[in-house]
Design brief:
- Two copies of one chain form a homodimer.
- Chain A is of the alpha/beta class.
- Helix content of chain A is about 35%, strand content about 25%.
- A seven-stranded mixed beta sheet of chain A has the order 1-2-10-15-14-11-12, sandwiched between helices. A six-stranded mixed beta sheet of chain A has the order 4-3-9-7-5-6, with helices on both faces. The first copy, chain A, has a two-stranded parallel ribbon with strand order 8-13.
- The longest helix of chain A is centred in the first third of the chain and has 19 residues, at about 55-70.
- The radius of gyration of chain A is 18 Å and the shape is globular.
């Protein structure tokens, strides 16, 4: 049996499973951001004509899934496994989406790292012959997330500068063995890290420790340096979390500097008042599909480390005085010219 | 590359990954049930001396994980992957447990099917060399679940006869390649099925359709009949859901009858007033570890199909008038003499 491991936390995918296609659907605010033109669908109404934001989120994820399946010239019945999740209690967006798709479904929860959880497992399932094609998807919605985690948006609560803006968006990819590019070569599964921080309006700082740890572990496991990657793209630390991650890595003698980019910072520009940047499981999922995958496919980036970061708290754990444990998972993705 | 599939939804694990050990921790009520003597640890206090039921649940899961790791003569650092989850919002029991264990962690959510989600993926990761040893764990707690899904237990709300009693318990297994028994030979990933039912006090009926569908699919994919299994053990349909499942399978010309057993019915006896039976992610996880795995190891059962069933609703989706989508996943487990 082939050994698909290197170091203590990293999987190697010897068959180079392919990111065959991606699709993204976002809300109106996201469509006005710096990469707004790149998303496949920009909705002009965050409710998508539905009766609730929750239904809107499920519909957005479903549209992304339907679109990406069509792009690979498949029917849902050709997809052997759907790995997905969202930020909502009991993953209702992903569950309702999976009901409509009728593809064998495993629900994942890693907060904003969910898409990378799906990629890490999905690449393994394709690479080892458990599935010919795996659908990976994640979503988030500003209004569903705010009322669940913080305050209903109707309250118009003042948001502190450390806060991030939960993205209304969904992204979905199909992984298969078609042999093209981009290809996933490694996956690093993170450990849960808790720095004792407790502020639900600052997710970036506690997630930074998890991001730094997983980036460090990935480089250590693979014997690579940051220079082996055109970019290390996190999702989503925001500006504060990004700065803390760079500083933490510097203390471990790893210099990333401008090479560390963040999906949350690509999604919005300063004048959009998103404060520390975008966040939510749909943020890095949509940025991957709309922005990073095309860059990799056309050689604008040759190799990236894509790092999903998640804050694993709940309103209940916060109200009970618990700190915020965080996790980060990474996949190495190679594009044209790598 | 080996093809690890058969039929449309079933994985085959050619290396026969081993359930190397299991461990279970339950609350006082569960300890008084028909298999109460078999659990490794029975707590005399559902709070476990903690300040909240949520902390108690996380501690219970952690104790089960610590115990099973020790039983395989390993340290947490020898375990390459932890797959786990629970019923709580944002999986806080599993997340806090993963923080303490410091094992690379992927959070799963499949309601009461979570343990089988973990086994399906965990067996694949071990069988294909991504991990030498995978820890799979799931938990539930009566009081955390009731207040999250229905009413706080302090309300002493009247429970209808269709309701199930969420088990206070946790189970954890280590899957490795030690080559012993019990061994996992197949995994069938379910599709999300929705019969349009909406009663959060009757999970058994909607889950029955998912259970019947996955059992049917597994038998179809593998070319097996119910007679190939000593038992098809669901977790957790309760008495009502079990009856409906038997009837649905009968309509598909599959006769299971007494061969269909349910973990929720093994956990409590009638006089314990659990109504339709036990439920919760910790129920089938603890029954697997305490009751089924020893039976398989010592030849009392030669081969079982272990079917986890989950109701994928949330209080929000219920209040918004949505029906209850359900899922079931299955693993075939072989014991001595199989």
């Amino acid at each position: 049996m082939a050994q698909h491991r290197v170091g203590s936390q990293t999987f190697t995918y010897s068959g180079r499973p392919t990111l065959a296609a991606g699709a993204s659907v976002v809300g109106p605010r996201e469509g006005k951001g710096p990469i707004g033109q790149k998303f496949d669908v920009v909705k002009d109404d965050a409710l998508l004509g539905e009766k609730s934001w929750e239904r809107a989120e499920a519909k957005m994820l479903q549209e992304a899934c339907d679109l990406v399946i069509t792009r690979t010239n498949r029917q849902p019945s050709d997809i052997h496994l759907f790995l997905g999740g969202d930020l909502l209690n009991q993953l209702i967006a992903a569950n309702f989406c999976a009901r409509e798709l009728s593809i064998p479904f495993i629900g994942l929860y890693g907060a904003c790292s969910t898409m990378v959880e799906a990629l890490v497992i999905g690449a393994a399932m394709v690479d080892s012959g458990y599935a010919d094609a795996v659908l990976c998807g994640a979503s988030s919605h500003h209004d569903t997330a705010e009322r669940q985690y913080r305050f209903p948006t109707e309250f118009a609560t003042q948001r502190p500068p450390t806060s991030q803006w939960t993205v209304t968006g969904a992204g979905a990819v199909v992984i298969d063995r078609s042999g093209g590019l981009p290809a996933i070569t490694h996956g690093t599964v993170g450990r849960v890290i808790d720095m004792g921080m407790q502020d639900p309006n600052d997710m970036g700082s506690p997630m930074a420790a998890a991001a730094a740890e997983t980036i460090w572990q990935h480089l250590s496991d693979t014997g690579r340096s940051p220079a082996d990657y055109d970019a290390i793209v996190t999702g989503d630390l925001g500006s504060l979390g990004r700065s803390v991650t760079i500083e933490l890595l510097k203390r471990a003698n790893i210099s990333v500097g401008d090479r560390l980019e963040d999906c949350g910072l690509m999604m919005f520009e300063d004048k959009q008042d998103a404060h520390s940047g975008g966040s939510g499981g749909g943020c890095c999922a949509a940025v991957l599909c709309a922005h990073l995958m095309p860059q990799l496919a056309f050689g604008q980036r040759k190799r990236i480390l894509f790092v999903g970061t998640g804050a694993l708290f709940s309103p209940t754990s916060h109200q009970q005085g618990e700190s915020i444990p965080c996790v980060a998972h990474a996949v190495a993705i190679e594009g044209m010219g790598s």
